[in-house]
Amino acid sequence: MALKHWTFLYAAPGLPKSGDVREVTTSTSTTVLAGYPTAEDALGASFGGELAAALDRTELIELCGAFSHEHVAKLRQARPKVPVGLVAYAGDQTEQLHALFS
Questions:
Q1: Cβ–Cβ contacts within 10 Å for residue 11, how many?
Q2: CB neighbours (10 Å) of residue 21?
Q3: How far is CA 23 from CA 29, 46, 73, in A?
């Protein structure tokens, strides 16, 4: 079975607390891009409203690097049949990441 519906959650300061949820649909798949000002806002939204409805249809959830392993655990507990992953960078990228976020 091919992946047909997946969701990427990200945190971006300046977004409305209610989030910015967009669907990108092709002839074979749907991707939901859901951004919130903080990871905590995104996690809260995943339990109700537009994002929760999208997650009810999703087959895979990916979280940006702003999320913690605790966030991953909470989503996995809430949606045990859906794989939840966390974006990570290899150790050789530490210097570039530090420059971006310091």
A1: 20
A2: 18
A3: 10, 15, 25
Question: How many CA atoms lie within 13 Å of 21's alpha carbon, on the beta-carbon side?
Answer: 18
pLDDT in tens, 15-24: 999 999 999 9
DSSP state letter for 99:
H
Q: How far apart are CA 43 and CA 68, in angstroms?
A: 11
With b for 16 or more beta-carbon neighbours within 10 A and e for fewer, the 46-85 pattern comes to beeeebeebbeebbebbbeebbeeebbebbeeebeebebe
pLDDT tens figures, 30-58: 999 999 999 999 999 998 888 888 899 99
The two tokens of residue 52 are: 């929760």
The CA distance from 3 to 20, in Å, is 23
Pairing of strands 30-36, 5-11: parallel
